[in-house]
Amino acid sequence: MSNTTMHLSVLQRRNGLREALELGLASRADMLEAKARLGETKTRLLVVDRDRLSAVRNLQRRIGRLITPENFPILDEDTYHVNEWVAEEWVQRTVENNVGLLVAQMEKEIAQSELTIKKAGYYPNVMLSASISDSYNEDLGISQGADKRVSVALQVPLFKGGYTSASVDQAVSTLQQARALVRNALESATVEVYDDLASLEIGESNIIAWQQVVNARVSTLNAVAASNQQGFKDMVAVLDAQSRLNDARRALNQSISSHLLQQVRLYATAGVLFEQDLQRVDSLLQPASL
Fold first, then answer.
1. Does the chain have fewer CB atoms within 10 Å around its N or its C terminus?
2. What is the pLDDT of residues 243-276, one digit of tens each?
3. First-to-last C-alpha distance (Å) of the chain
4. pLDDT digit string, tens, across residues 26-80
5. Is the entire prediction scored with pTM above 0.70?
6. 33/218 Cα distance (integer angstroms)
7. Distance of alpha carbon 7 from alpha carbon 36, whole angstroms
8. 97 and 270 in contact (C-beta within 8 Å)?
9. Is residue 246 within 8 Å of residue 253, measured between CB atoms?
10. Cβ distance 186 to 153 under 8 Å?
11. Is the separation of the CB atoms in 71 and 287 below 8 Å?
12. C-alpha to C-alpha distance for 63 and 83, rounded to whole angstroms
């Protein structure tokens, strides 16, 4: 039972005891106890209202706009349906698109190229160069005309074997580390996908359960309201049923919002999260009047 409902219930009971006291059906001690409970309930109500205002101010500071009960986002609990998630498909998407895995694979390719370059130090280098020049001088005793030259140079790394071997060993070690990073990134991404899918499955079960609870409490509220009209139930029972229904709807909204955010996390893990996905989730969580 919420604090507001409890306050109304205690207030009605106090009024009932006052009438019973006037009729001689209750003692003054009962009346004093009812007044004490009413005062306690008012105090709790003031504390809750203070906490609510503080939470509203903090939320306004974080998102830059004021959220009130009139524009507070209420998810469509009746038409929201859960999706089916195939683990193998999402693992394949993760292997193809996960950002961390793609970065690790690129680093492995770079390390492989570096190793190829370092190994080239074992082989001789052949350099071919060509040049052409033209000169003119008034002194006829100096040779004039075009000067064409072609040269070939062969460099054999006779004294660089130790340096080349050390460079190759370092490149091999870097490549092995890069391969280990790829395996680790793949395993981490796969485990994270399975964790996200498990969380989504749990969230779907919670949503279905709370939807059933909401339906049951709606039926209970209707039955209690009908009994109240017939005089079999007092208003306290109606308020209590309404409070229980509101609690169930709040829990259902929280389950749906958590399920939506978990979907975003799965898309991000698989590397397929795009702007339209964020816009879709944001539209569902957006206050109605904004």
1. C
2. 888 888 888 888 888 888 888 888 888 888 888 8
3. 31
4. 555 655 665 666 667 677 777 777 877 787 777 677 666 665 555 555 555 555 6
5. no
6. 33
7. 12
8. yes
9. no
10. no
11. yes
12. 30
- From residue 33, how far is each of 19, 39, 164 by CA, in Å? 15, 10, 93
| 129 within 8 A of 150, measured Cβ to Cβ | yes
Domain boundaries, given as residue ranges, for the chain = 1-67, 77-123+161-290
Q: How far is CA 172 from the centre of its chain?
A: 38
What CATH number belongs to 77-123+161-290? 1.20.1600.10
Strand partners, 176: none
Secondary structure (DSSP) of the chain: --HHHHHHHHHHHHHHHHHHHHTTSS-HHHHHHHHHHHHHHHHHHHHHHHHHHHHHHHHHHHHSS---TTT-----TTT--PPP--HHHHHHHHHHH-HHHHHHHHHHHHHHHHHHHHHGGGS-EEEEEEEEEEE--S-TTS--EEEEEEEEEEE--SS-HHHHHHHHHHHHHHHHHHHHHHHHHHHHHHHHHHHHHHHHHHHHHHHHHHHHHHHHHHHHHHHHHHHHHHTSS-HHHHHHHHHHHHHHHHHHHHHHHHHHHHHHHHHHHHT---HHHHHHHHHHHS-TT-
Q: Which two tokens stand for residue 66?
A: 């004021």
Closest C-alpha to 85, from 94, 74, 77: 94
